[in-house]
Amino acid sequence: MTDTVAHHETAHAIEQEAAAPAASQPVDVEAAVLAIGDRARVASRAVGRANRASKDRALRAIGAALKENEARILAANERDLEAGRENGTSKALLDRLALTPARIDGLVSALENLAGLPDPVGNVVRGQTLPNGLRMRQVNVPMGVVAAIYEARPNVTVDIAGLALKSGNAVILRGGSAAANTNRELVAVLRDTLVEVGLPADAVQTVDDYGRAGAEVLMKARGRVDVLIPRGGRDLIQNVVLNSTVPVIETGEGNVHIFVDESADEAMAVEILLNAKTQRPSVCNTVETLLVHSKSTVLPALAHALAERGVRLHVDGRSMDALPAGVEAVAATDVDWATEYMDLDLAVATVDSIDEALEHIRRWSTGHTEAIITNDLRNAERFIAEIDSAAVIVNASTRFTDGGELGLGAEVGISTQKLHARGPMGLTELTTTKWIVQGEGQVRA
Length: 445
Prior knowledge:
Elements: H1 3-23, H2 29-49, H3 52-68, H4 70-86, H5 91-97, H6 101-116, E1 124-129, E2 135-142, E3 145-150, H7 154-166, E4 170-174, H8 180-196, E5 204-206, H9 211-219, E6 227-231, H10 234-243, E7 256-260, H11 266-278, E8 287-293, H12 299-308, E9 312-315, H13 317-322, E10 329-331, H14 334-337, E11 345-351, H15 354-364, E12 369-373, H16 377-386, E13 391-394, E14 414-415, E15 423-424, E16 431-438
Helix pairs in contact: 1-8, 2-9, 3-6, 3-8, 4-8, 6-7, 7-8, 11-12
């Protein structure tokens, strides 16, 4: 039996298993999900003990399996996309849902990058020998069982599984109904490959078969799940944050700003804005609001370039007056300043100073990413010092707020909170620490 045929039969068996509950008797969802948590706990111990060589071999094997099964994965993804189109799913959501050969190549590359990174497990955070002779050190150790709830993002299935594996964790996934077919294939590939390399299949599991009810049980599986990470729109994230009893790392929405200072170079500003808005508008590090200094002369060029790329401008009164002939726009309201469009829309405001820009960002920012385009070093330093967001960027696109781009290999999400992890979360953010104290009979006085 070839690997491809074996995988086909495994995937088919999973599909039959998913369909079985409806054909027989009702499933006790709580018991089923908690059992998944128990199996993940057992698997986490095996993965946590695995050495770097074993984990890196698994990551590379997963990448090879994704390419080997690419046709089947893309066929499943097309079924999800077709269902999305029939249901009137927005273009932005369809873009997040879509896999292509190039995007699968990107996942394989991310897995290869992860394999090339140092193993965070066992890293010594600090250590010393105390005056009484005790030797102490604080080291990174796996979280244990990591869960993720996300929507219409099948790439997250692979990214989170890869990061969890490298950091010594088991993972439980809830990928949402929009990507059900794609995620079923991906999870099957992941589990089959883990077995082939001698690691437990239960290091990667999903509760997708149990729908929203399964997600609700997962959110309350305290003691079985060590940390839960939501990725998606505001409604999903807030539902998880407000209703979970499991510890949550909040990945927030990205109402991202770029401030064009009066000293900004026009060509640089145009290139950065086009990249930040149009390269992939459906993701959270895309710019949503442009602030332009009233003494800058770059707004007409920016507006013209953005309009040529199909960007719909939502502008305040002064920005409307500065638009060149032929560039259409609509009047902005407070709703626009608060909106994460995740589409080819951009809010534009004119400000008279860096103080006014900072005040606007403080009022409307979600704490994700803010950028300044400037040739004034003092303004750049002030922007860095006074912006309280997870990422602050000077003279570059906001699209760089990304784990892969920042050398993390991949990311679980981008945290907008301040406890434990902030910004793109990679391997280290999926570990906690343990204190190790070694002595020779010392007792406390």
